[in-house]
Amino acid sequence: MIEKVIAYIDAQRETYVSRLNELLRIPSISTDPERRADTRRAGQWVHQLLLACGMKSEMLDTAGHPCIIADSGAGDGPAVLIYGHYDVQPTGDESLWHSPPFEPTVRNGSVFARGSADDKGQVLAHLLAAEAWMKVAGKLPTRVKFLIEGEEEIGSPNLERIVQSQGERLACGYVALSDTPKFNADIPAITYGTKGLIYKEIIVTGPKQNLHSGSYGGTLTNPGNAAAQIIARMHDADRRVTVPGFYDDVRELTAEEKAQMKRLPFDEQGYLSAMGAPALTGERGFTTLERRWARPTLDVNGIVGGFIGAGASTVIPAKMVVKVSMRLVPNQKHEKVSRAFDEYVRSLAPEGVTIELLNHSHCSAYVSPLGTPGMKAAEAAIEAGFGKKPFYIREGGTLPILPLFKSALGAESLMIGFCHPDCNAHGPNEFFGLSDFHCGIKTAAHFMHRMSQAA
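Now predict its structure.
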Protein backbone atom coordinates (compact mmCIF):
# COMPACT_ATOMS: atom_id res chain seq x y z
CA MET A 1 0.00 0.00 0.00
CA ILE A 2 2.85 2.41 0.74
CA GLU A 3 3.88 2.27 -2.93
CA LYS A 4 0.40 3.39 -4.00
CA VAL A 5 0.47 6.21 -1.46
CA ILE A 6 3.84 7.44 -2.76
CA ALA A 7 2.59 7.24 -6.36
CA TYR A 8 -0.41 9.35 -5.37
CA ILE A 9 1.87 11.92 -3.70
CA ASP A 10 4.07 12.10 -6.80
CA ALA A 11 1.01 12.72 -8.97
CA GLN A 12 -0.12 15.59 -6.72
CA ARG A 13 3.17 17.49 -6.80
CA GLU A 14 1.94 20.64 -8.53
CA THR A 15 -1.34 20.64 -6.63
CA TYR A 16 0.54 20.46 -3.35
CA VAL A 17 2.59 23.54 -4.24
CA SER A 18 -0.60 25.45 -4.97
CA ARG A 19 -2.03 24.44 -1.63
CA LEU A 20 1.15 25.45 0.16
CA ASN A 21 0.97 28.85 -1.53
CA GLU A 22 -2.63 29.20 -0.39
CA LEU A 23 -1.63 28.73 3.24
CA LEU A 24 1.41 30.99 2.88
CA ARG A 25 -0.76 33.86 1.65
CA ILE A 26 -2.46 34.07 5.06
CA PRO A 27 -0.51 36.64 7.17
CA SER A 28 -0.83 34.75 10.46
CA ILE A 29 1.54 36.92 12.52
CA SER A 30 0.60 35.85 16.04
CA THR A 31 2.31 38.75 17.81
CA ASP A 32 0.40 41.41 15.83
CA PRO A 33 -3.06 42.26 17.26
CA GLU A 34 -4.12 43.55 13.84
CA ARG A 35 -3.48 40.06 12.40
CA ARG A 36 -5.58 38.22 14.97
CA ALA A 37 -8.33 37.41 12.46
CA ASP A 38 -5.77 36.30 9.87
CA THR A 39 -4.06 34.06 12.41
CA ARG A 40 -7.38 32.42 13.24
CA ARG A 41 -8.05 32.02 9.50
CA ALA A 42 -4.81 30.04 9.15
CA GLY A 43 -5.92 27.79 12.00
CA GLN A 44 -9.27 27.25 10.32
CA TRP A 45 -7.48 26.37 7.07
CA VAL A 46 -5.57 23.60 8.87
CA HIS A 47 -8.71 22.45 10.69
CA GLN A 48 -10.70 22.20 7.44
CA LEU A 49 -7.93 20.20 5.73
CA LEU A 50 -7.99 17.66 8.56
CA LEU A 51 -11.78 17.42 8.48
CA ALA A 52 -11.85 17.08 4.69
CA CYS A 53 -9.54 14.07 4.71
CA GLY A 54 -11.73 12.24 7.19
CA MET A 55 -10.03 12.87 10.51
CA LYS A 56 -11.79 13.87 13.70
CA SER A 57 -10.63 17.45 14.27
CA GLU A 58 -11.51 20.14 16.78
CA MET A 59 -10.45 23.78 17.02
CA LEU A 60 -9.93 24.75 20.66
CA ASP A 61 -10.02 28.40 21.63
CA THR A 62 -7.47 29.73 24.11
CA ALA A 63 -6.86 33.11 25.71
CA GLY A 64 -4.82 33.82 22.58
CA HIS A 65 -4.90 31.95 19.28
CA PRO A 66 -6.61 28.57 18.84
CA CYS A 67 -5.12 25.06 18.83
CA ILE A 68 -6.25 22.27 16.53
CA ILE A 69 -6.41 18.72 17.90
CA ALA A 70 -7.13 15.90 15.46
CA ASP A 71 -7.17 12.10 15.66
CA SER A 72 -7.17 9.46 12.93
CA GLY A 73 -8.57 6.73 15.15
CA ALA A 74 -7.27 3.22 15.80
CA GLY A 75 -4.24 1.82 14.01
CA ASP A 76 -1.26 -0.50 14.44
CA GLY A 77 1.87 0.41 16.37
CA PRO A 78 2.30 3.16 18.96
CA ALA A 79 0.24 6.32 18.53
CA VAL A 80 2.11 9.32 17.15
CA LEU A 81 1.34 12.94 18.02
CA ILE A 82 2.46 15.30 15.27
CA TYR A 83 3.09 18.81 16.55
CA GLY A 84 3.45 21.97 14.49
CA HIS A 85 2.40 25.60 14.32
CA TYR A 86 0.58 27.76 11.79
CA ASP A 87 1.63 31.17 13.14
CA VAL A 88 4.60 33.05 11.72
CA GLN A 89 7.12 35.71 12.66
CA PRO A 90 6.68 39.39 11.70
CA THR A 91 8.14 40.28 8.32
CA GLY A 92 10.57 42.94 9.55
CA ASP A 93 11.83 45.52 7.08
CA GLU A 94 9.95 44.54 3.92
CA SER A 95 12.35 46.55 1.76
CA LEU A 96 14.85 43.73 2.37
CA TRP A 97 12.52 41.15 0.79
CA HIS A 98 13.04 40.45 -2.92
CA SER A 99 9.33 39.62 -3.22
CA PRO A 100 6.39 40.42 -0.91
CA PRO A 101 6.50 38.13 2.16
CA PHE A 102 2.88 36.99 1.80
CA GLU A 103 2.92 36.58 -1.96
CA PRO A 104 4.66 33.20 -2.41
CA THR A 105 7.19 33.43 -5.20
CA VAL A 106 9.16 30.55 -6.72
CA ARG A 107 12.80 31.25 -7.57
CA ASN A 108 15.55 28.70 -8.24
CA GLY A 109 13.40 25.79 -7.11
CA SER A 110 12.35 27.33 -3.79
CA VAL A 111 9.24 29.13 -2.62
CA PHE A 112 9.96 32.43 -0.88
CA ALA A 113 7.43 33.59 1.72
CA ARG A 114 7.15 34.20 5.44
CA GLY A 115 6.42 30.89 7.16
CA SER A 116 7.45 28.75 4.19
CA ALA A 117 10.00 26.79 6.27
CA ASP A 118 8.99 27.88 9.78
CA ASP A 119 6.65 26.12 10.04
CA LYS A 120 3.82 26.06 7.50
CA GLY A 121 5.66 24.17 4.78
CA GLN A 122 7.07 21.56 7.13
CA VAL A 123 3.87 20.89 9.07
CA LEU A 124 1.86 20.83 5.83
CA ALA A 125 4.07 17.95 4.66
CA HIS A 126 2.65 15.82 7.50
CA LEU A 127 -0.92 16.97 6.87
CA LEU A 128 -0.72 16.13 3.18
CA ALA A 129 0.85 12.73 3.92
CA ALA A 130 -2.09 11.91 6.18
CA GLU A 131 -4.49 13.07 3.48
CA ALA A 132 -2.74 10.86 0.90
CA TRP A 133 -3.12 7.80 3.11
CA MET A 134 -6.81 8.56 3.63
CA LYS A 135 -7.38 9.08 -0.11
CA VAL A 136 -5.60 5.88 -1.15
CA ALA A 137 -6.22 3.46 1.71
CA GLY A 138 -9.21 5.00 3.46
CA LYS A 139 -7.31 5.03 6.75
CA LEU A 140 -3.89 5.68 8.26
CA PRO A 141 -1.65 2.66 8.94
CA THR A 142 -1.03 3.78 12.52
CA ARG A 143 -2.90 6.03 14.91
CA VAL A 144 -1.87 9.62 14.23
CA LYS A 145 -2.89 12.61 16.29
CA PHE A 146 -2.22 16.24 15.46
CA LEU A 147 -1.61 19.21 17.75
CA ILE A 148 -1.19 22.35 15.64
CA GLU A 149 -0.98 25.63 17.55
CA GLY A 150 -0.98 29.31 16.64
CA GLU A 151 1.31 30.77 19.30
CA GLU A 152 4.72 29.13 18.89
CA GLU A 153 6.30 32.35 17.66
CA ILE A 154 5.24 34.15 20.85
CA GLY A 155 6.43 31.48 23.26
CA SER A 156 3.34 29.20 23.30
CA PRO A 157 1.78 30.90 26.36
CA ASN A 158 -1.35 28.73 26.30
CA LEU A 159 0.08 25.43 25.11
CA GLU A 160 0.90 23.98 28.53
CA ARG A 161 -2.69 24.43 29.68
CA ILE A 162 -3.94 22.70 26.52
CA VAL A 163 -1.52 19.79 26.91
CA GLN A 164 -2.31 19.35 30.60
CA SER A 165 -6.09 19.60 30.15
CA GLN A 166 -6.19 17.43 27.01
CA GLY A 167 -3.66 14.85 28.16
CA GLU A 168 -5.94 11.86 27.53
CA ARG A 169 -6.74 12.95 23.99
CA LEU A 170 -3.07 13.66 23.26
CA ALA A 171 -1.72 10.43 24.78
CA CYS A 172 0.89 8.90 22.48
CA GLY A 173 3.99 6.77 22.23
CA TYR A 174 6.01 9.45 20.44
CA VAL A 175 5.77 13.09 19.46
CA ALA A 176 7.00 13.94 15.95
CA LEU A 177 7.70 17.45 14.73
CA SER A 178 9.35 19.12 11.78
CA ASP A 179 10.45 22.52 13.03
CA THR A 180 14.18 21.82 12.72
CA PRO A 181 16.50 21.81 9.68
CA LYS A 182 18.45 19.29 7.67
CA PHE A 183 22.19 19.05 8.37
CA ASN A 184 22.99 20.89 5.14
CA ALA A 185 21.45 21.45 1.73
CA ASP A 186 22.07 17.85 0.66
CA ILE A 187 21.88 15.75 3.84
CA PRO A 188 18.74 15.28 5.97
CA ALA A 189 18.93 15.10 9.75
CA ILE A 190 17.24 13.96 12.92
CA THR A 191 17.81 16.39 15.77
CA TYR A 192 17.99 14.48 19.03
CA GLY A 193 18.87 17.24 21.48
CA THR A 194 18.23 20.92 22.17
CA LYS A 195 19.58 23.25 24.84
CA GLY A 196 17.72 24.74 27.76
CA LEU A 197 17.57 28.46 28.52
CA ILE A 198 17.78 30.96 31.36
CA TYR A 199 17.21 34.62 30.47
CA LYS A 200 17.94 37.31 33.05
CA GLU A 201 18.26 41.05 33.39
CA ILE A 202 20.87 42.65 35.66
CA ILE A 203 20.06 46.19 36.79
CA VAL A 204 23.02 48.08 38.23
CA THR A 205 22.02 51.32 40.00
CA GLY A 206 24.21 54.06 41.48
CA PRO A 207 23.32 57.76 41.86
CA LYS A 208 19.74 59.01 41.70
CA GLN A 209 20.33 60.59 38.26
CA ASN A 210 22.95 60.93 35.53
CA LEU A 211 25.84 63.09 36.78
CA HIS A 212 28.51 65.30 35.21
CA SER A 213 31.57 63.06 34.81
CA GLY A 214 33.95 65.97 35.39
CA SER A 215 32.33 67.19 38.57
CA TYR A 216 31.62 63.79 40.08
CA GLY A 217 33.99 61.35 38.35
CA GLY A 218 36.33 59.54 40.71
CA THR A 219 34.15 60.18 43.77
CA LEU A 220 31.57 57.41 43.37
CA THR A 221 31.14 54.03 41.69
CA ASN A 222 30.12 54.43 38.06
CA PRO A 223 27.35 51.87 37.28
CA GLY A 224 28.75 51.55 33.74
CA ASN A 225 32.17 50.61 35.06
CA ALA A 226 30.55 48.26 37.58
CA ALA A 227 28.50 46.53 34.88
CA ALA A 228 31.61 46.10 32.73
CA GLN A 229 33.49 44.65 35.70
CA ILE A 230 30.72 42.13 36.37
CA ILE A 231 30.54 41.09 32.72
CA ALA A 232 34.31 40.74 32.40
CA ARG A 233 34.46 38.30 35.30
CA MET A 234 31.79 35.94 33.93
CA HIS A 235 34.40 34.04 31.86
CA ASP A 236 38.00 33.03 32.52
CA ALA A 237 40.99 32.97 30.18
CA ASP A 238 39.85 29.61 28.77
CA ARG A 239 36.41 31.13 28.03
CA ARG A 240 34.78 28.94 30.66
CA VAL A 241 31.87 30.35 32.62
CA THR A 242 33.01 31.28 36.12
CA VAL A 243 29.66 30.97 37.93
CA PRO A 244 30.40 28.53 40.80
CA GLY A 245 28.96 25.09 40.12
CA PHE A 246 27.95 25.99 36.57
CA TYR A 247 29.39 22.77 35.10
CA ASP A 248 28.63 20.44 38.04
CA ASP A 249 25.72 18.58 36.44
CA VAL A 250 26.68 18.80 32.76
CA ARG A 251 26.12 15.53 30.93
CA GLU A 252 29.32 14.97 28.98
CA LEU A 253 29.21 13.65 25.44
CA THR A 254 29.74 9.93 25.11
CA ALA A 255 32.68 8.65 23.10
CA GLU A 256 30.19 7.52 20.45
CA GLU A 257 28.61 10.99 20.24
CA LYS A 258 32.02 12.63 19.92
CA ALA A 259 33.04 10.22 17.19
CA GLN A 260 29.75 10.81 15.38
CA MET A 261 30.25 14.57 15.44
CA LYS A 262 33.76 14.20 14.06
CA ARG A 263 32.39 12.17 11.15
CA LEU A 264 29.98 14.90 10.13
CA PRO A 265 31.12 16.83 7.01
CA PHE A 266 31.01 20.12 8.89
CA ASP A 267 32.40 23.04 6.89
CA GLU A 268 33.95 25.13 9.64
CA GLN A 269 35.24 27.80 7.27
CA GLY A 270 31.85 28.04 5.60
CA TYR A 271 30.21 28.38 9.03
CA LEU A 272 32.61 31.21 9.88
CA SER A 273 32.04 32.93 6.54
CA ALA A 274 28.26 32.72 6.93
CA MET A 275 28.52 34.49 10.30
CA GLY A 276 30.83 37.16 8.97
CA ALA A 277 32.92 37.02 12.16
CA PRO A 278 36.73 37.40 12.18
CA ALA A 279 37.39 34.12 14.03
CA LEU A 280 35.81 31.17 15.83
CA THR A 281 36.36 31.11 19.59
CA GLY A 282 34.83 29.38 22.59
CA GLU A 283 35.47 27.13 25.56
CA ARG A 284 38.98 25.72 25.28
CA GLY A 285 39.27 21.98 24.66
CA PHE A 286 36.12 21.51 22.56
CA THR A 287 35.35 21.55 18.85
CA THR A 288 33.03 24.09 17.27
CA LEU A 289 30.21 21.56 16.97
CA GLU A 290 30.67 20.41 20.57
CA ARG A 291 30.47 24.00 21.80
CA ARG A 292 27.51 24.73 19.59
CA TRP A 293 25.43 21.67 20.45
CA ALA A 294 26.61 20.14 23.73
CA ARG A 295 28.35 22.70 25.94
CA PRO A 296 26.57 25.24 28.17
CA THR A 297 27.12 28.91 27.43
CA LEU A 298 26.61 32.36 28.92
CA ASP A 299 26.18 35.38 26.67
CA VAL A 300 25.46 39.07 27.05
CA ASN A 301 22.48 39.90 24.82
CA GLY A 302 22.22 43.63 25.37
CA ILE A 303 23.53 46.60 27.39
CA VAL A 304 21.57 49.81 27.90
CA GLY A 305 22.37 52.85 30.01
CA GLY A 306 23.83 56.32 30.16
CA PHE A 307 24.17 58.37 27.01
CA ILE A 308 23.77 56.37 23.80
CA GLY A 309 22.77 59.10 21.34
CA ALA A 310 24.83 60.65 18.54
CA GLY A 311 27.77 62.79 19.55
CA ALA A 312 29.06 63.15 23.10
CA SER A 313 27.56 63.70 26.52
CA THR A 314 29.93 63.29 29.46
CA VAL A 315 27.74 61.67 32.08
CA ILE A 316 28.06 59.07 34.76
CA PRO A 317 24.97 56.90 34.21
CA ALA A 318 22.54 56.46 37.07
CA LYS A 319 21.62 52.98 35.90
CA MET A 320 22.87 50.25 33.58
CA VAL A 321 20.85 47.30 32.35
CA VAL A 322 22.53 44.11 31.13
CA LYS A 323 20.53 41.30 29.52
CA VAL A 324 22.09 37.86 29.80
CA SER A 325 21.13 34.40 28.55
CA MET A 326 22.50 31.00 29.50
CA ARG A 327 22.02 27.95 27.30
CA LEU A 328 21.91 24.77 29.32
CA VAL A 329 22.65 21.16 28.38
CA PRO A 330 21.14 17.90 29.64
CA ASN A 331 21.21 17.30 33.42
CA GLN A 332 21.77 20.97 34.28
CA LYS A 333 18.92 22.17 36.48
CA HIS A 334 17.78 25.67 35.63
CA GLU A 335 16.72 26.40 39.24
CA LYS A 336 20.18 25.54 40.57
CA VAL A 337 22.04 27.46 37.87
CA SER A 338 19.76 30.46 38.28
CA ARG A 339 20.40 30.68 42.04
CA ALA A 340 24.15 30.29 41.57
CA PHE A 341 24.19 33.02 38.93
CA ASP A 342 22.32 35.48 41.15
CA GLU A 343 24.63 34.86 44.10
CA TYR A 344 27.70 35.23 41.93
CA VAL A 345 26.59 38.49 40.30
CA ARG A 346 25.88 40.01 43.71
CA SER A 347 29.30 38.90 44.93
CA LEU A 348 30.95 40.64 41.95
CA ALA A 349 29.20 43.96 42.46
CA PRO A 350 31.62 46.62 43.74
CA GLU A 351 30.78 48.85 46.68
CA GLY A 352 28.66 51.84 45.75
CA VAL A 353 26.02 50.23 43.50
CA THR A 354 22.91 48.14 44.09
CA ILE A 355 21.99 45.08 42.07
CA GLU A 356 18.53 43.95 40.99
CA LEU A 357 18.03 40.70 39.06
CA LEU A 358 14.97 39.97 36.94
CA ASN A 359 14.07 36.52 35.61
CA HIS A 360 12.46 36.55 32.17
CA SER A 361 12.33 32.90 31.12
CA HIS A 362 13.72 29.45 31.80
CA CYS A 363 13.49 26.01 30.24
CA SER A 364 15.25 22.68 30.60
CA ALA A 365 17.39 21.05 27.93
CA TYR A 366 16.06 18.03 26.08
CA VAL A 367 17.75 14.97 24.62
CA SER A 368 15.97 12.03 23.05
CA PRO A 369 17.36 8.51 23.47
CA LEU A 370 18.82 6.99 20.33
CA GLY A 371 17.92 3.53 19.10
CA THR A 372 14.25 3.51 20.11
CA PRO A 373 11.70 1.95 17.73
CA GLY A 374 10.38 5.44 16.95
CA MET A 375 13.85 6.75 16.16
CA LYS A 376 14.53 3.78 13.89
CA ALA A 377 11.22 4.37 12.11
CA ALA A 378 12.07 8.03 11.59
CA GLU A 379 15.51 7.17 10.21
CA ALA A 380 14.10 4.62 7.76
CA ALA A 381 11.36 7.03 6.67
CA ILE A 382 13.82 9.84 5.95
CA GLU A 383 16.04 7.51 3.94
CA ALA A 384 13.03 6.39 1.92
CA GLY A 385 11.75 9.94 1.41
CA PHE A 386 15.03 11.73 0.68
CA GLY A 387 17.06 8.83 -0.69
CA LYS A 388 19.79 9.40 1.92
CA LYS A 389 20.34 8.32 5.49
CA PRO A 390 19.96 11.19 7.95
CA PHE A 391 22.67 12.42 10.28
CA TYR A 392 21.96 12.63 13.99
CA ILE A 393 22.59 16.15 15.24
CA ARG A 394 21.89 18.44 18.17
CA GLU A 395 20.82 22.08 18.11
CA GLY A 396 21.98 25.03 20.18
CA GLY A 397 18.50 26.54 20.29
CA THR A 398 15.70 25.84 22.74
CA LEU A 399 12.31 24.17 22.25
CA PRO A 400 10.35 24.44 25.53
CA ILE A 401 7.66 22.14 24.17
CA LEU A 402 9.95 19.10 24.28
CA PRO A 403 10.37 18.87 28.07
CA LEU A 404 6.66 19.75 28.32
CA PHE A 405 5.68 16.76 26.18
CA LYS A 406 8.04 14.52 28.15
CA SER A 407 6.69 15.58 31.54
CA ALA A 408 2.99 15.81 30.62
CA LEU A 409 2.66 12.91 28.16
CA GLY A 410 5.67 10.76 29.02
CA ALA A 411 6.58 10.75 25.32
CA GLU A 412 9.94 11.22 23.63
CA SER A 413 10.13 13.60 20.67
CA LEU A 414 11.40 12.87 17.16
CA MET A 415 12.64 16.00 15.38
CA ILE A 416 12.60 15.38 11.65
CA GLY A 417 13.97 18.31 9.65
CA PHE A 418 12.94 19.02 6.06
CA CYS A 419 14.19 22.57 5.43
CA HIS A 420 17.58 24.05 4.54
CA PRO A 421 19.55 25.11 7.66
CA ASP A 422 20.07 28.58 6.15
CA CYS A 423 16.45 29.08 5.08
CA ASN A 424 16.29 32.61 6.55
CA ALA A 425 13.67 31.66 9.13
CA HIS A 426 12.73 34.81 11.11
CA GLY A 427 14.62 36.93 8.57
CA PRO A 428 13.92 38.43 5.16
CA ASN A 429 13.54 36.15 2.13
CA GLU A 430 12.61 33.02 4.07
CA PHE A 431 12.41 30.05 1.70
CA PHE A 432 11.58 26.36 1.47
CA GLY A 433 12.97 24.18 -1.30
CA LEU A 434 10.16 22.59 -3.29
CA SER A 435 12.17 19.39 -3.62
CA ASP A 436 12.51 19.30 0.17
CA PHE A 437 8.78 19.94 0.50
CA HIS A 438 7.98 17.02 -1.78
CA CYS A 439 10.52 14.72 -0.12
CA GLY A 440 9.13 15.79 3.23
CA ILE A 441 5.62 14.68 2.27
CA LYS A 442 6.94 11.30 1.16
CA THR A 443 9.01 11.02 4.35
CA ALA A 444 5.93 11.74 6.46
CA ALA A 445 3.95 9.08 4.58
CA HIS A 446 6.75 6.52 5.05
CA PHE A 447 6.99 7.50 8.71
CA MET A 448 3.33 6.62 9.29
CA HIS A 449 3.90 3.30 7.56
CA ARG A 450 7.06 2.51 9.53
CA MET A 451 5.43 3.46 12.83
CA SER A 452 2.70 0.89 12.18
CA GLN A 453 5.46 -1.72 12.29
CA ALA A 454 7.36 -0.30 15.27
CA ALA A 455 7.60 -2.59 18.28
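The mean pLDDT is 96.
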